[in-house]
Write the structure tokens for this entry.
Amino acid sequence: MLGVTASGATVREARDRAYAAIDRLDWPEGFCRRDIGWRAIAAEKR
């Protein structure tokens, strides 16, 4: 298991930075959920 985190001014920015870091990994058997944080991002819009 590998955990990747990132920070940003908003949850969306932090999520996008974390996903960008994940995309740079060379891990053929790796799996990444891309649905994390959607509720927090939706709440930011309010």
Remarks:
- The mean pLDDT is 94.
- DSSP finds two helices and no strands in the chain.
- The first helix runs from residue 11 to 23.
- Residues 15 and 28 are 21 Å apart (CA to CA).
